[in-house]
Amino acid sequence: MRFTQIPGFARLIWAKSGENSGHGLLTHLLDVAAVTDAILEMEPTSSLRWVGLRLGLPLEHTRHWLAALVGLHDFGKAIPGFQAKWQEGMQADIACGLTFPSTACTVDNHSCATVALLGPLLRKASGVQRDWVKAVVQAIGAHHGYQFLSSEINDAKPINEPAQWKQARQAIFDAYWQTLAPQGVPTLDELELPVVNWLAGLTSTVDWIASNAEWFPLGERGHDGLAAYFAHARQLAFQALDKAGWQPFQPLLNASAATETLLAQVAGKESLSARPLQTVGDRLLQQAQGPSLLLVEAPMGEGKTELAFLAHLRLQAANGHRGLYVALPTQATGNAMFKRKLTFLESFVAGRADVQLVHGAAAMNDDLLQLRDIDHSREATLSASAWFSQRRRPLLSPYGVGTIDQALLATLNVKHHFVRLWGLGNRVVVLDEVHAYDTYTSGLMVALLQWLKALGSSVVLMSATLPQARRNELLAAWGVNAAQIPALAYPRVILADDAGVRGEHFSAWLLSPIHLHGLGESVEEMADQAIELLAAGGCGAVIVNTVERAQTLYRLLRERLGRDVQLLLFHARFPADERRAHEQKVLELFGQSQNRPQQALLVATQVAEQSLDIDFDFMLSDLAPVDLLLQRAGRLHRHIRCRPQAHADARLWVAGLNPEFPDLKKTAWGFVYDPYILGRTWALLRKESVLHLPDDIERLVQWVYGDEPLPQGLEETVQNQIEIESYGEHLAQQKRQRQLAMNITLDCLAELGDAYGGKPRGNEEGDDLRNVTRLGRDTVTLVPVAATENGWKVGDTLFQPDQLLDSETARLLYNRQINVSKTALVKHFQTGQYGQLPVSFTENALLRYFHPLVLVDGCYKVGKLNVRLDEELGLVYEKREGVSPPAHPC
């Protein structure tokens, strides 16, 4: 078939505007088919086997069928309404005899038109069943972000369209299908939702690549034969994929190796002795049959992270998994894990591989920036491609570390959610700290597990410990019922795979007994106790539940300790660059180094609670849910080292653990944590004097989160507050959050026609609509800048807010971001009360979703609130009594 054999009115229909006649629709369809074919040639055989089975195709025909189907994604551009969008292209169409009645031009959504118009032609040419074709055209037509509803599809056909348009579409389709000519006929009558969304994700991905005019020049490129054009397009496709950083699949482990040999490589060391967890876990992994779920419940320091990397090696070797994504609760824990993953990959990658850090502040991570634009001619193996780093694409990279939110968005009806699903399909996905989420986010996690299993992925779940109901819920999402779960003592590992469910208990490192002491809830009492303990030397920590409380306590301690004692403040309300510097200082002083100060004290919020390898001689903490309190306690005497005699025993003082029940409103603890869980934690721990970890973890957590009656001897008013008032609120909150999660998540078992009904379309953060992965107060991201007579300043750099920024200044501003949830501030900036965003922000890709916090003499006023950026304290909120002027810089 030749281009010159195609009727002119069909050949000139355009897909991409540009010089001369732009890029023809037929040529673009062939480009996309070529990229599809090239990408699938680089995929592991397991991916093609999985999708072929679910399409009803034999393995040998699957790749060519997919290329032929995906290429048709833009077929709906051959309608009057779309062709009228580019004046030059429209005039060329008219010159060839096509007409543009006004009624026919009212329909211009080409992607929905593909769904409405392609089915009959595809069904006739292929001989495939109607429902199969209907699902396929919906999948490829969704490439602009959303699956279409039936009502939208019904309205997507042009009205009173002249017959010649239908003839043009038929000519384009016939030429295309004759060129691709896929062999055989699919044997299935209908398709399940996971494979539909897998196909939708693949379609969007290849369209992004094939639409790059630098990689795919416009026009017919000097070819008359369509087969020759397609062959050349495949060559361009491989070149484009190489430029994008897309590499052929290569397993990291090519030969069997002993557990300790692999662990040493994982850690980047010459040798390493396996911990009991790692020995037991690897024994189970080597027995795994098919995609698997590995659930690890173990205290800190047992080597869970190394086991997760080892699990990837074993499961990838067994199942042909295409990559690894490690999902964590916060950006800070993600940054720390990214370093460890780089060490892991550098030990195993042969050739080239892409790796991405996947969260909202990844662009300012130094480790990631060093991997940009790597010159592989100098024997570098790892890089972080700029193509993969763009919005909605990072999960397409074979190796990534990021927040769990990036994966959870795959389960919501956000734009291009199926691209995330395609990226996570046939992967090993590690979900760390799975105990750290509320009922709503946990509900989203359940949906994610169901999707991952349906997409042929393996999952590693890691937690210090889980309430039994939570453990059962996660395993049920993988298809394991409660009767199948083995009864094992803590700590434990459970494996669920095609062969069933099995697990083992293992011995864990015994921490020093932790002596538990009660303390009043006031910051003054905490300061008194901290100073008394610090007088005996050593390094201590005071972990509190709110930033305001941390700032107040720091002020008190600084006044009384003077400048001779090292006193650090660490919380989330510092500008991002300062927060990273504080975190690094914390690790330097309290990490594994033996060069510790003789006397130092850290005041911190929950940011010091998770995934930081730090160690203290003594600790004070606000009352918190028992599992989180145990997490904090795990930082006591964590490393083997010489300690001051006064701190030879590990001791934990808990504010609010007095015989009197604490005031959860006055302290604000009841706004941070569930009052019912706090009440049960208080009721249990007030009777405890020594904690033996990890032996006590299971008993304490299961009691607090279970339904055992409260201990006897409580005052009636306190018992009623916990068992009646707080419990009622607890049940209502859980029910509400569980229902919200069910309402918003997409069910992987649903029929395509039903799956998206009633599911709100919402975009990711920064867009007008949002489907959230976590409940809580709304937030805004602010960038503090100093107002001067000559413009705004960030650091020593002066810039004009009404002018475009250079890249260096934009990055300086980006690195100063602060995420805040103060209601008055959020309302002020979200509703535009401050005025319009300046050009310096709106026209910059890094800053367009941020708001400048314009400080005069270090402060900004919003009604009765004074916002001040303090060098030591971070962002401080102060009430201004008796005034209510309009908001403005002060």
Describe this protein's structure.
- With 890 residues, the protein is of the alpha/beta class.
- The protein folds into 4 domains: 3-244, Hypothetical protein af1432 (Orthogonal Bundle), CATH 1.10.3210.30; 276-359 and 388-505, P-loop containing nucleotide triphosphate hydrolases (Rossmann fold), CATH 3.40.50.300; 514-724, 3-Layer(aba) Sandwich (Rossmann fold); 780-889, no CATH class.
- Helix content is 42%, strand content 14%.
- It is built from 34 helices and 27 strands.
- The strands form 5 sheets. A 9-stranded mixed β-sheet has the order 6-5-7-4-8-9-3-10-11, sandwiched between helices. Strands 14-15-13-16-17-12-18 form a 7-stranded mixed β-sheet, with helices on both faces. Strands 19, 20, 21, 22 and 23 form a 5-stranded mixed β-sheet that branches.
- Strand 19 and strand 20 (791-794) form a beta hairpin.
- Helix 8 (130-141) crosses helix 11 and helix 23 crosses helix 24 (547-561).
- The longest helix is centred in the C-terminal third of the chain and has 29 residues, at 716-744.
- It is globular, with a radius of gyration of 30 Å.
- It starts with 7 loop residues before the first helix and ends with a strand.
- The model is unreliable at 764-769 and 883-890 (pLDDT under 50).
CATH class of the largest domain: Mainly Alpha
The total count of helices amounts to 34
Overall tally of structural domains? 4
Strand content: 5-15%
Backbone CA Rg:
30 Å
Mean pLDDT score: 93
How far apart, in Å, are the first and last alpha carbons? 73 Å
Number of strands: 27
Assembly annotation: single chain
Sequence of strands across the biggest β-sheet: 6-5-7-4-8-9-3-10-11
The geometry reads as globular
Supply the CATH architecture of the largest domain: Orthogonal Bundle
Largest beta sheet, briefly?
A: 9 strands, mixed
Percent range of helical residues:
40-55%
Query: Structural class given helices, strands, pairing?
Result: alpha/beta
Model regions low in confidence, pLDDT < 50 over at least 5 residues: 764-769, 883-890
The CATH topology of the largest domain comes to Hypothetical protein af1432
Domain HD Cas3-type: 18-209
GO molecular function: ATP binding; hydrolase activity; metal ion binding; nuclease activity; RNA binding; RNA helicase activity
Pfam families: Cas3-like_C_2, Cas3_C, Cas3_HD
Keywords: Antiviral defense, ATP-binding, Helicase, Hydrolase, Metal-binding, Nuclease, Nucleotide-binding
